[in-house]
Write a structure and sequence with these properties.
55% helix; 4-stranded antiparallel beta sheet; 1277 residues; 5-stranded antiparallel beta sheet
């Protein structure tokens, strides 16, 4: 507020020049201390030309005042002076009134404080017993008179303490600060308060007034002043202060049940419950195993005794049965499932057509993709964080839009931390040389011009009053002029300014809050480890010329501060900074650096897929025997085609949704290709591997017939996984958050299009590749015929040795599958994996919410030190506004619902609720009272503030009003009159005589609708406590939302909280429920689709359970690995559901529709029924799952470990690594075990039927199912 501090200093000087008097340097000048005797009286002149009048020493008797003097004294000090002698004259009373009028606007919000303040100075000036508590200790002669220069003023401890207590919490609404900062220099106790009033200072007290503590020995004849003092919560309504200015007047705030959390000891209730449940489960499992073992032993002994008694021999028929039938085939499926049969036939026909007309299929697919990709013309990337992470229809987004439209965008802040921590230990940052250098830096910033348009700070800065920019800096204590810094006394001057902010006002005339300027303070600001400097710049709507000028100046400031960083380092200091545009620039920079890592990751997966496809038909034996075979049997071009199809599906999806106006996000650009590669490569491996089996078992068929058989068997499996994933991703489109919604749309589209292209275009490419192989043409160069290669047409184009199975497949068949399906192994696997499931659930409450800004930017960004310093040194919270909408404040009822300083204000008014919440900051995160424009407006009308609201004749507006201005609000304006005065107040400047003018503090806080006599919007400003973590920010937002809801309920209109950071943290109020809903919906979709396509609810439940356990383990890993839950991890969790389905779907389908020939060769006497089908499913597809899904992802994810971006390292690498580990272990270990125990019924695989086919398989597939290994299955190891 302009001139407020200077006005208070003049006020102090005036008051004290009235109050003190003594003539001689002798301490016994006031020789008589008795009732009815004075110590000072009248004015004797000024000590300097610009000084204030000083009183005369006068130890004479008090006198009766004349009628005019008495009237003036009673008007100022009250009726208690009507029959009293006095020690003052009329000129002193006139000066007293003039100076008290300047103090009144600051303190009259609290009647008790005002009464005590007036009582102190009235008693000091005019008390007839002045000599009892005033002793003149020093004078200087001037002419024939003496001027008082020092006095002792005895005030009782009781009066001083209660006086301070009554004023310490009084708020001055215009600055939203404490009145004590102005009248007491920010005093923390009553002795500091009195000392501030009495200290002689420039533009302050013109003489020294000491307030020694009462002491009978030192002051034997004196009695401390101990007039009646009123506490702020006095029961006398006339003097009782409002809750806003007196904590003792506040009602008890309501309890906040939301703050309570359920714990059992140190464990959250959820963690405790799941641990108990698992412990019970484990106990029951142990009992069941022990009972089963005991029963088996009993049965065995019983059978042995029976055999000894009956001499039972096995019959010949039983021997023949063992020879004819494998045990595993006794329970083989015998029924067909009509959905699977229909799918099989449909995919067979589709495969035959595509393989029969490959060129037409390929060209048609390319044409369709090209047409869909035309949507790239409308391709747009969304970079605005608000439009990315906040749903347009969310409360936070709508409230931000409302606030910006009504009050203008929030200020832009450019902030610097200057820290002394470059040595072994942090040290004080302040020194004379450092101050001199920093003053020069600020001077350069003041003159700095942008390269674009020559914009200066003066052109863009925020100016609340006059032409001075708001710069929160230590230089403000010296008005930005280094010549005011005394090289010898600067430390004392700085400490005085910090203790008395109103005595050292900056050029913009508002007191500087030391907590905003100094960080790491121990005992004194001289020990501060950091200086904090903030330039406040006006903000404007995006796209306006003013917005562009602010951006241009910020760019020049950023470039200059980067240079200043080097200068600070040379001085042994460290400088960190942030401009308003810095974060967005660094986020984009992070994306650019991550792009290289992402591309490398994709290239590695690309090369692996291309090379490993060829290894399925190339064996070491065939290459060593004839190296030319490698040129023909290689499938590198087939792999390239498969990868290109994946990229085509991404391109088509992007084009389709771009044409529909759905913007691309950086998440989509970075994640979708990885996701589709992960899904698509697996399908490619499955199709190719199955086609190789068909080439061996049905070499007599034409290529289109063989392709049809392969796709007929794998098509339904691809349909199962693709449908489940597409539905799971599509569910994300229901989310309002654009980043998640857009990702879900693009992902669902890409996965669906990729699946279609794989069963059409890739099948056609596969047929063409087979034509090339059977004609012995070289891979990559199909025009070249390799004549030295083995003739391969006799073996379905597979060549010699093609029947050999790979090492991985052999390991699964001979070792791995039998091992995990053993009885003891099953028990251990169930116990371990359900233990992991329990641990994952128990860790759910430990997953933090939020996304630290330091994680979202490159690790070498200049913003990292800034954010560290912000959390370590900045001891102030962000501002928060409580905004009212469509409230008719011209009505008395509405006024009472908002005000806080009047007798008839409702106890649950906006001001009182905020004040009650301020008193419990650990729950509310509110640090200051609300700056209430209505209270300040009404106090501006107070006729006691004679220089505020005045009429055309200069008289107070409400001087002769009926009813008069009063604390019951009965005399306040309403209706049209309210608007007339409010319009005047909102344009009134803040001056020395009237600091309550609304122009500086509230000009942008109120929106007026004079046509309808309403206020469409207004805000009430307060601030949060310092917020130092994501948890603090989220809790502060939730608390503000709760407080606003309480106010809305009590006020009867919509009230919402607004702070600049709220829009980014709104997601965390619902993200847990949203994550549960999305994951739950995806699991439900998995259950439904799997049930329909597999024909077994039981198997579908097993698959869904395994996927749920996988996701649970991933979330538990997030808690351990320090991955918090936010929109990024929500997207990744949706991906985890989809890819977990990909891991499990193929195994589950191979279990439900087992290969008959594979089941026939299951290990004898060991597996039957579910066990046999589980073993067959692992033998058939586990190798493809490992090579096509797991290894591909391990390679792709591994590269992400080398990223420089913490966001990629934490939210992608860690989550995806957890995904690969848990999805692969759950699908390859737990799933077959659960299927063998509780899996659903099986069905006949249509592709396994037919006598000739079975005969061919038994003849030409010896390596996989041949007799060499049959004997080893007879043993039950």
């Amino acid at each position: 507020m302009k001139c407020l501090g200077r006005g208070w200093r003049v006020l102090t000087a005036g008051l004290l020049s009235i109050l003190v008097g003594s003539a001689l340097a002798d301490p016994d000048l006031t020789t008589k201390h008795e009732k009815g005797r004075c110590a000072i009286r009248g004015h004797c002149g000024k000590q300097g030309f610009f000084g204030s009048d000083l009183p005369c020493p006068d130890n004479g008797l008090a006198e009766k005042p004349d009628k005019e003097t008495k009237k003036k004294l009673v008007d100022i000090c009250g009726n208690k002076w009507s029959d009293s002698d006095v020690c003052c004259n009329e000129e002193q009373i006139d000066a007293l009134q003039s100076n008290l009028n300047k103090a009144t606007p600051i303190i009259n919000a609290c009647p008790a404080c005002k009464e005590n303040f007036y009582n102190l100075f009235c008693t000091f000036t005019c008390s007839p017993d002045q000599s009892l508590f005033i002793n003149v200790t020093a004078t200087v002669p001037k002419g024939t008179k003496d001027l008082v220069t020092e006095v002792d003023h005895l005030v009782s401890n009781e009066y001083g303490s209660e006086f301070y207590s009554s004023c310490k919490d009084v708020k001055f609404g215009a600055t939203n600060g404490n009145a004590m900062d102005f009248i007491g220099g920010g005093a923390k106790n009553f002795t500091q308060f009195l000392k501030f009033l009495g200290d002689k200072k420039l533009l302050g007290s013109p003489f020294q007034m000491n307030f020694p503590r009462p002491n009978r020995t030192e002051f034997p004849d004196m009695v401390p002043m101990n007039k009646t003092v009123y506490p702020c919560n006095t029961t006398e309504e006339k003097y009782r202060c409002a809750c806003l200015d007196c904590g003792g007047s506040c009602a008890k705030p309501l309890d906040v049940p939301e703050a309570k959390q359920c714990y059992v000891g140190l464990l959250p209730c959820l963690s405790f419950a799941v641990i108990i449940v698992y412990s019970v489960f484990l106990g029951l499992l142990c009992v069941a195993v022990a009972g089963h073992v005991a029963y088996q032993r009993h049965s065995k002994h019983k059978n042995e005794r029976l055999r000894l008694l009956q001499d039972i021999e096995p019959s010949d028929d039983e021997d023949e049965g063992d020879i004819v039938h494998n045990v595993g085939m006794l329970d083989r499926p015998t029924k067909h499932y009509f959905v699977n049969t229909w799918c099989d036939r449909s995919f067979s026909r589709l495969g035959y057509v595509c393989a029969r007309f490959p060129i037409i299929t390929i060209m048609t697919s390319i044409l369709i993709v090209v047409l869909m990709s035309l949507g790239w013309i409308r391709f747009q990337v969304e970079r605005d964080p608000v439009r990315l992470w906040v749903a347009p229809d969310s409360a936070a987004a709508q409230e931000k839009t409302f606030f910006d439209e009504k009050f203008g965008p929030f200020f832009r802040a450019e902030q610097v931390f200057l820290v002394n921590d470059t040595g072994k230990e942090p040290g004080p940052v302040l020194s004379y040389d450092t101050l001199r250098w920093w003053f020069d830096v600020e001077s350069v910033v003041q003159r700095l011009k942008s390269l674009d348009g020559g914009v200066t700070l003066d052109d863009v800065c925020f100016k609340p009053v006059g032409d001075a920019c708001v710069v929160q800096s230590v230089s403000g204590y010296f008005e930005g002029d280094f010549s005011r810094v005394d090289p010898h006394g600067w430390k004392d001057d700085l400490v005085d300014c910090v203790d008395n902010p109103s005595s050292c006002l900056p050029t913009f005339q508002q007191p500087l809050d030391p907590s905003l300027l100094f960080g790491g303070v121990n005992k004194s600001v001289l020990d501060a480890e950091a200086l904090i400097i903030t330039w406040v710049v006006n903000n404007h709507p995006e796209g306006t010329p003013e917005f562009g000028r602010a951006m241009a100046w910020e760019e020049s400031l950023k470039n200059y501060l980067l240079v200043v960083q080097d200068e600070a380092q040379e001085r042994g200091l460290r400088l960190s900074f942030n401009t308003e545009e810095s974060l967005e620039q660094e986020l984009n920079k992070s994306t650019n650096t991550d792009a290289k890592i992402v591309v490398v990751s994709y290239v590695i997966m690309f090369l692996y897929a291309s090379l490993s496809l060829g290894s399925t038909t190339l064996t070491t034996r065939s290459i060593l025997r004839n190296p030319a075979n490698a040129l023909v049997q290689s499938k590198f071009m087939l792999g390239v085609a498969g990868i290109l199809i994946v990229l085509m599906s991404v391109s088509a999806s992007v084009g389709l949704f771009s044409a529909a106006g759905v913007k691309v996000t950086l998440i989509i650009a970075e994640v979708i290709p990885f996701l589709v590669l992960a899904v698509g490569v697996d399908n490619i491996f499955l199709i190719v591997h199955e086609f190789e089996r068909v080439n061996i078992s049905h070499p007599e068929g034409s290529i289109p017939e063989r392709v049809a058989r392969a796709l007929g068997r794998m098509g339904p499996s691809i349909l199962l996984s693709a449908t489940t994933e597409t539905v799971a991703f599509a569910l994300g489109c229901a989310v309002g958050m654009p980043a998640v919604r857009n990702f879900a749309a693009y992902a669902a589209g890409a996965v669906f299009i990729n699946a279609i292209l794989q069963v059409t275009m890739f099948v056609a490419v596969l047929a063409l590749n087979q034509y090339r192989v059977e004609n012995n043409r070289a891979d990559c160069f199909p025009c070249v015929r390799v004549r030295r290669a083995d003739s391969s047409y006799l073996n379905g184009g597979m060549g010699h040795g093609a029947g050999e199975e790979g090492g991985l497949q052999r390991f699964i068949r001979k070792t791995y599958a039998p091992a995990i399906l053993g009885k003891k192994a099953k028990v251990g696997i169930i116990a371990v994996f359900f233990g992991i499931f329990t641990a994952g659930l128990a860790l759910f409450p430990k997953v933090e919410l939020g996304l630290d800004q330091r994680v979202a930017i490159p690790s070498d960004s200049y913003l990292i030190p800034y954010f560290n310093d912000l959390y370590d040194y900045f001891d102030a919270g962000p501002p928060v506004y409580f905004v009212t909408k469509e409230l008719n404040v011209t009505r008395r009822e509405a006024q009472q619902e908002l005000c806080g300083r009047f007798a008839t204000c409702r106890q649950d008014s906006l001001a009182n609720i905020v004040e009650m919440e301020r008193k419990r900051p650990e729950i509310s995160y509110i640090a200051t009272s609300a700056a209430n424009w209505l209270d300040d407006f009404f106090y501006w009308l107070n006729p006691e503030n004679t220089k505020c609201c005045v009429d055309e004749h200069g008289a107070p507006c409400f001087a002769n009003r009926d009813p008069p201005w009063n604390f019951t609000l009965s005399g306040m304006p309403e209706g049209q009159e309210f608007f007339q005065y409010l319009t005047r107040w909102i344009e009134a400047p803040t001056t020395e005589d009237c600091p309550l003018g609304g122009a500086a503090a509230y000009s942008n806080a109120i929106v007026l609708d004079e046509t309808h006599l309403t206020i469409p919007a207004s805000h009430f400003r307060t601030s949060h406590t310092p917020l130092r973590s994501q948890k603090d920010f989220i809790s502060a937002y939730k608390a503000a939302r709760r407080i606003a809801n309480e106010i809305s309920k009590d006020v009867g209109t919509e009230v919402f909280p607004y702070s600049k950071f709220y829009v980014f943290f709104d997601q965390y109020t619902t993200i847990v429920r949203l994550a549960a809903a999305l994951i739950g919906s995806a699991l439900a979709a998995t259950l439904v689709v799997t049930t329909i396509l597999l024909g077994s609810l039981q198997t579908a439940l097993v698959v869904t359970l395994v996927v749920a356990m996988t996701v649970s383990a991933i979330i538990g890993s997030m808690a351990i690995l320090g991955v918090s839950l936010n929109a990024l991890t929500l997207v990744n969790l949706i991906i985890c559901v989809g890819i977990s389905v990909e891991f499990t779907a193929h195994i589950a389908r191979a279990y439900t529709f087992p290969s008959r020939v594979t089941m026939e060769k299951a290990p004898r006497q060991r597996f039957r029924g579910r066990d046999a089908r589980s073993w067959a499913s692992m033998v058939n597809v586990a190798a493809s799952v490992v090579s096509g899904i797991m290894v591909t992802k391990v390679l792709g994810v591994g590269v992400l470990a080398f990223t420089r971006s913490k966001i990629f390292e934490i939210y992608y690498f860690r989550v995806w690594l957890s995904l690969v580990i848990w999805a692969s272990t759950h699908s390859l270990i737990l799933l077959p075990v659960l299927l063998s125990l509780v899996g659903g019924r099986g069905y006949v695989d249509p592709e396994s039927e037919g006598g000739l086919e079975q005969d061919l398989r038994s003849r030409q597939y010896p390596a996989l199912l041949g007799g060499d290994d049959e004997e080893e299955y007879d043993s039950d190891d």
